[in-house]
Design a protein that fits this description.
This is DUF1453 family protein. Pfam families: DUF1453. Keywords: Membrane, Transmembrane, Transmembrane helix. By secondary structure, this protein is mainly α. It has one domain. The chain contains five helices and two strands. The chain has a two-stranded antiparallel ribbon with strand order 1-2. A hairpin with a 2-residue loop joins β1 and β2. The longest helix is centred in the last third of the chain and has 35 residues. It is elongated, with a radius of gyration of 17 Å. The model has no long low-confidence stretch (mean pLDDT about 90).
């Protein structure tokens, strides 16, 4: 129970930090590097699977990836760019922080329900994979949209 309480509290603190960082980042121009690097930095977390405590079954992997891709679709839908002068910026969206909080709440509810049946290590592994499966499609879609918009600026 202590692990669950700590992990939920930590997740909410991290969620708030992400919202603040994302809102501040919208004040600066976007480039390919800023879009594509976060998944690479996050990928180092996959080293957790070296330790047997965090390893997942095939079904747990599939469930995590499916949920991550579903959650990413909401982020893809709300992530838009705008041109200011000759620079490309993330378009401010009032829905973005609400969506991030909503996704965090949904993940927390899922964690509460499955924490009784899944070991903490496997649960951590599943939620890392869910987050990674959410950020990769989102960032790839952002990169695609960015390049498409950047091509129109060059012409």
């Amino acid at each position: 129970m202590l692990y669950l309480t700590f992990s939920i509290g930590f997740a909410f603190l991290m969620g708030i930090a992400v919202i603040i960082i994302r809102m501040k980042a919208q004040k600066y121009p976007v480039n390919e590097k800023k879009i594509i690097l976060p998944p690479f930095f996050m990928a180092t977390g996959a080293l957790m699977y070296v330790v047997p405590y965090f390893r997942l079954t095939g079904l747990e992997i599939l469930e995590s990836i499916i949920l991550g891709v579903l959650f990413s679709s909401v982020l893809i839908w709300t992530s838009k760019f705008e041109v200011q002068g000759s620079e490309v910026y993330m378009k401010r969206s009032k829905a973005f922080p609400i969506i991030l909080i909503g996704l965090l709440v949904i993940r927390t509810v899922i964690k509460i329900f499955v924490s009784n049946t899944i070991e903490p290590g496997q649960l951590a592994g599943m939620f890392f994979l869910l987050a990674f499966s959410m950020i990769v499609p989102w960032r790839l879609a952002m990169l695609y949209k960015y390049k498409k918009l950047k091509r129109t600026l060059v012409q």
